[in-house]
Amino acid sequence: MVINVRTSMATQAAPSHVQNQDTLRMLNLRLRHANPSWVWVISDGMGGHLRGEQASHITVQVFLDHFLLSYFDSVKFFENSVQYLEKLVSEIDIAVYDLGFSGEAFHRDPHRNLMGATMTGALLVDQYLYLVHLGDTRCYLMRDGSLTLLTVDHVTENGEFLTQALGSGDLLDPFITKIKMEKRDMLVFLSDGVHKVLRTGEILNIVATGSDLEQIAGDLVKVVTADRRFADDVSALVVSFS
Known about the structure:
CATH architecture: 4-Layer Sandwich
CATH superfamily: PPM-type phosphatase domain
Structural class: alpha+beta
Strand content: 25-35%
CATH class: Alpha Beta
Order of helices and strands: EEEHHHHEEEEEEEHHHE
Radius of gyration: 17 Å
Number of strands: 11
Number of domains: 1
Oligomer: single chain
Mean pLDDT: 91
């Protein structure tokens, strides 16, 4: 069964941020005649000044480059997809950590707070979605009128602090899962700036009533930015399967 895929995304920086610390991208690799056919990723950076923006940017760049530059090794991937994705997360973690210890800013202030990032990435291989996740960005599955959270938030019990983040220097244990996609499914990737303001029912209503993907992604951002609790960067990436 051939699955057609469409993607739309929207993002807006928080009023207090000079730069948007969320980064979200996708790759359409259908014409390459090799797996995967699609790749999506969303990341929320942490760190003062421009460091959050840099952290999320390098996270997304390294994740996508792995597939864009034909680094993908299908033999090793199908032998053990979990191990393969864990290794990729480790490479991204090292890149973010190294960036935090490099550059002119570090030499000016070696005691500065280091940078970090969350990440939710996914790749479509044939009909299967492989999802890899760290932190509190999220991915939801919309199927048959129901919205299901696919990821697990890596946060403390009170939800205030991350327990897993790229670049932290700590041992990481990413959440990885595999899902068979069906026609009429939708994926909704969100930064925490969205899901900390909107309840699951509100997200479901926006996704279910939207007339097209562009409206859905735009409304997820627009509703949050109109809310008095809008205080963080907000980003939404929506994917439909048909």
